[in-house]
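[DERIVE C-ALPHA CELLS]
===
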Amino acid sequence: MYQFVLGKISTLNADPYASALADMAPPGARRARWLAGRTLLTRMLSPAPLPEIVFGEQGKPAFVDDRPLWFNLSHSGDDIALLLSDEGEVGCDIEVIRPRDNWQALANAVFSVAEHDELEREPPAEKLSAFWRIWTRKEAIVKQRGGSAWQIVSIDSAAKQPHSVSQLQFGSLSLAVCTPTPFNLTAESISPFEPLAEKSPAPQR
C-alpha cells in the first residue's frame, strides 16, 4: 500500500491538530514546515496516535515503534507532500517548477551524462520543466536510500534502478517517488489534504 498526499503548508498550520502540536514545533524558519509535516502525519494516521519519530544517521525521519509503516515528506514553497508505505522505505520529492538563475550551471555540476542527454532532447521552452523533472527524480532516489542532499551528484536517475521510480508533472509541480515495489504516480493516485470542519475538536495529547 502506498498513499501520496498533497497539501498546503498554510492550510495545515491552520488545522485544529496544529494547535495541539504547536508548542513542540521548533522556532524560526523551519517552524511552519515542521508543524505542517507533523499535522499531516497525525491526520493521516488518526485515530491511531502518531508514533515517536527518530532520525537516521543522515537525518531521515522514521517511526520508532514496530509498526511496519514508512513515510517521507517533501515541501516546496507552500506545497507539501507525504508518501506513506507499508512496503518498505520510500522517498518522495516535490518542487514548484520555477525559474532559477543558475539552473543550467547546477545541471552541469550534478547531472549524469544520460541526464544531460535527456535534458538536451527537450525543446528550449521545455528545458526548465525537464530540469525540475530530473532533479525531483534524483532527490526521490537519494531520500529513499536515506542519503543526504550532497549525494545527489552520485545518482544517475536515467539508469536502471533497484527500486521503482515514478514521476508526474501536476500543474505547476514536479513530483517524484522512489518505492521498493512498483507504484505508478498519477493524478488519480494523489490524495488532496482535506481540512477538518471548523468545529472539529483538536486531538488529545
User: Anything to note?
Assistant: The longest helix spans residues 127-144. DSSP finds six helices and nine strands in the chain.
